[in-house]
Amino acid sequence: MKIKSLSLFFVAAALVGCASNQVAQTDTKGAHTEICKATSEAEIASLFDRWNQSLQTGDPHKVVANYAERSILLPTVSNKPRLTPAEKEDYFHHFLENRPSGKIDLRFIELGCNTAFDAGLYTFTFAKTGQSVSGRYTYTYRWNGSEWLITSHHSSAMPEKN
Question: Looking at the domain that runs over 39-157, which CATH code has it been given?
Answer without folding.
Answer: 3.10.450.50
